[in-house]
Amino acid sequence: MNRSDQPGSDAATRAAEALSALERALRDPQLDEAQKRLLGQARDALLAANAETEREHERYRALFDAVPDPVSVLAWDGTVLDLNKAGSNAYKLPREDIIGKPIEVLNPELPEGHLVPVWETLRRGETYVIEVTNKRADGSRFPVEVHSALLRQDDRDCIVAVARDLSARAEAELRYRELMETVDKGIIVRDATGRITHANAGAMRILELDTRLGLEQTLRNDVWLTLDEDGREVPEELRPATYVQRTGKRVDSTVLGFYNRDKGVLKWLSVTCVPQFQPGSDKPYQVLSMFSDVTALKRDSRLFDRVQDLARIGGWEWESGSDRLYLTDEAARILGQAQVPATMHDMLAALREPDRTALQQALRQAADSGAGFAIECMGSRADGRTFWIGVIGEANSSAAGTNMTGTLQDITERKQDEETLRVLARTDPLTGLLNRDAVLGELDMRMGDLAAGTIAVLYIDLDRFKAVNDVLGHAAGDELLVAAARRIRDATGTEGLCARFGGDEFLVLCHAGDDPGLPERIAGRILDAFSDGFRFGSEEFPVTASIGIACAPEDGQRPQVLIQNADAAMYDSKRRVRNSFQRFTPALVQSQQEKLKLEAQLRRAADNNEFHLVYQPQVDLRQGRIVAAEALIRWRNQQLGEMRPDHFIGHAENTGDIIRIGRWVLREACLQAARWRDAGLGIVRIAVNVSYRQFLGEDLAATVRDTLREFSLPGAALELEFTERVLIEDAPDTMRTFAELRALGVMLTIDDFGEGYSALNYLRRLPIHGLKLSQLFVSGVPGNSSDIAVCQAVAGIARSLALGVVAEGIETEAQRDFLLRLGVPVGQGFLFAPGLHADEFGYRMLEEQRRAG
């Protein structure tokens, strides 16, 4: 590299010119001695400055070439001004072949204008980081991570770029993992949230962790007590890993005690915590904790006693012959007596029966057998407060007699926690109300004494809860349940007992002996409490309640019967009109029996050949010709008569029979398509509705594939209509099933689009072909402005997503004309034909063919 090419060469040139001018001036004979002396001093100073500059340049070059990574200095336009020795070695090019060349000589793939974002970032005072692929002289490529910073040099802004070779990173990471597992030190890795992501074998061994349990389970904070060297508990925010995560500063060789509450074992560890940063970040993305076991070095008695105090563990020794008892300070504090017990008799006196006798027997048996014992006892301190202790002891026999030693641990807090757990066992953890078991117990107890008056049960079910839970997720669903429980509890006040019975169902128990109108008044207050919607962010969802009321003894003399009848009344209320309450009546029993009878007959309907299909034509709205058919199921039962689908499909969904029925419909429709084909009608596409339960309950793609193969039909002969609910199931299985069906050539349509909680984000991701515009909206056009708006919106969505649209429920010419103007090409409804038997549908198709021919 020429000196003129180096950074700072302009300044060196100017210095050389100045020195030359001074030399010429000194040779001027007209100068007097004083002037020559001054010029000589200036020349000497300039020579010294030049020498210092040269030394600075040599130091710069030495440092520049000492950097192990390739470093380049670039002009504003990307021209390479300088390159260190590591760069020349990395690119396998002499420095002079790179200096003065554009940066593209090292990275040919850089796009035009690539320096624009670099300069923007650097002028904000930030570092620009990017991963690119650089080229060596032999044409081989290697990945680098380039860190660029602003450099002011020769009165101009330059870029200094450091390139880190990433080729060996994967290999280094593998060696890093292998090293972690082979070192004898413990290593624990935490992510940015503090969650433990890895513990090596050394950590598992030192901490004596159970490899069968997960790290989160074995290293929970409630299992481990962290102590400093003086035996004080270390707050969470000051523990090394937490401190390093928060500050980004390293913590070296800090001795801490870790007490395992479950095992009663104390470990002393020397801990070093190191933050690890992602390139360009000032916050650690993970913290590495390395530690070794120094328990053997921490047997100092004063510190050990202090630790025992914090763990509430005391020691005792009993000389059985003299009955003398020796206690550590912590053991004496735990017993809390006015005078420190000096004999075992004194300690036993502090205990309550029957625990006093139990400890006496344990001591006697241990002395006789030489075995150890462990027992829990309750006692009273001098101030009257109750305490619980865990006593562990073992016998030590010698020629001098039998002594016993052991530990005394204060377990009062644990016993109190156990009592709290007994309370929690009766409480629903989400809402804080009584849980199912607790309210059943309460109802059973109250119904055991009906002489005290009438017992009423209010069975409450939230309307539209499932919609909120499905659309917004389980977290919002839980939030809704908590808010609903609060409203129910506030509306009930002190006049009833509230419980969460399960899911979105609640119970209220109340005495109504002297006030028969109380259950209805409570129900009314609960309905009023649900008059306001529930807000989630900026959205408000109207969620109401349906309530059933049953009273004992007239509506049932056993808890399960009373609850079952209240449940029946609630369902009747929901069926009639939501956001209301209904008293149980004997007529509801008849309704329940009819429901059970219907479900029993429905289960046998397929085996008895009671189902048949009719086919409603789908027609070209402009020309009126048939383009497809929708298969509609009908049920004729000898006992129940002709049943409309809206009378039995819901029951089939609830019982799960819809899966079997749906499979029958699919096969029957394909069989009919094959018959029409064999009769010379060609391939008539048949649309079949698929239940959401059927979609989840079987391998739908495999069932469709096997059925099409059975009748030698192409996928184009079949159209599957799904409800909007599949749109919110963004599971991989859902996407895979739709992709497999589409690959078969099957048409995929969303039925009754616009009635539910559709989400365009889901709609655009599913590989569907079309939407069906619900007759709920078609029935209102062209007279109803709201229905017009919905139809326009659905048609617009379909156009924007390149989806087809079929309108259902067309009954008038006015509706057809409106839909044609809207751009809807295909429709079905009574204007054209109802559901037709297969022969009648085939006859109409033949007629169309005849007219077309």
Task: Enumerate how many helices there are, as a single number.
Answer: 29
Distance between the termini: 89 Å
What is the percentage of strand-forming residues? 25-35%
Instruction: State the helical fraction.
Output: 40-55%
Structure notes:
This protein is of the alpha+beta class and 853 residues long. It is built from 29 helices and 32 strands. The protein has an 8-stranded mixed barrel, surrounded by 4 helices. A hairpin with a 5-residue loop joins strand 1 and strand 2 (80-83). It starts with 8 loop residues before the first helix and ends with a helix. Residues 128-178, 373-423 form the PAC domain.
Secondary-structure topology with pairs:
Elements: H1 9-26, H2 33-66, E1 71-74, E2 80-83, H3 85-91, H4 115-123, E3 128-135, E4 141-153, E5 156-165, H5 169-182, E6 186-191, E7 196-199, H6 201-206, H7 215-218, E8 224-227, H8 240-247, E9 251-260, E10 265-277, E11 284-293, H9 301-310, E12 313-319, E13 324-327, H10 329-335, H11 344-349, H12 355-369, E14 373-380, E15 386-398, E16 401-410, H13 412-424, H14 436-447, E17 455-462, H15 465-472, H16 474-492, E18 497-502, E19 505-511, H17 518-529, E20 534-536, E21 539-541, E22 545-552, H18 559-576, E23 581-583, H19 586-605, E24 611-620, E25 626-637, E26 641-643, H20 645-655, H21 658-681, E27 686-690, H22 692-697, H23 700-710, E28 718-722, H24 732-743, E29 747-753, H25 760-765, E30 770-773, H26 775-778, H27 785-800, E31 804-807, H28 813-822, E32 826-827, H29 838-852
Helix pairs in contact: 1-2, 15-16, 16-17, 19-20, 21-23, 23-24
